[in-house]
Specification:
The protein has about 160 residues and is of the alpha+beta class. It is about 60% helix and about 15% strand.
Length: about 160
């Protein structure tokens, strides 16, 4: 159990710190809405997302900041409770989700928006700009889905 808790703690802290450092780098070295081309498919473009994924509710007038702060806090608490109370929970997947959610929650509390800066594209087709917290949440969800399908096959 101690080893499990140490792994959970390390994953969450690593993701949170990596996200914090990369966002601070983006704030220090990138200009808002100005793309820095890295190669044919990757730009670094500083953007402030006042909404959720894919800028959902970004133009809602300000109330969404508090909604997403409260919602994120509740989701983090629920996932942390499940992880702590169920020894068979997919704790690595949940740790990735918690670490990413804490990174974006930190942005919302401190800045009022989420700092995004990674932009993938193919020619004129652009994926919405995101950050390492979003990557961690996506990895956590993929691991969770994999775990669910793996357990379903065993049954």
């Amino acid at each position: 159990m101690l080893k499990r808790n140490i792994i959970i703690f390390i994953i969450i802290i690593f993701i949170f710190i990596l996200d914090l450092l990369t966002k601070n780098y983006a704030l220090d070295y990138l200009m808002l809405n100005h793309s820095l081309s890295i190669n044919n498919f990757l730009n670094l473009t500083l953007a402030f997302n006042h909404g959720a994924a894919f800028s959902f509710l970004s133009e809602a007038g300000g109330w969404q900041r508090w909604f997403f702060i409260i919602f994120s806090f509740i989701v983090i608490l629920i996932i942390a409770y499940i992880t702590a109370s169920d020894e068979n929970s997919p704790y690595i997947a949940f740790s990735f989700v918690i670490g990413g959610a804490l990174g974006n929650l930190n942005d919302r509390i401190i800045h009022g928006y989420v700092i995004d800066f990674i932009e993938f594209h193919y020619e004129n087709l652009y994926w919405p700009i995101f950050n390492f917290a979003d990557v961690a949440i996506s990895i956590g969800v993929i691991l969770l889905l994999y775990s669910m399908f793996l357990n379903k096959k065993r049954d």
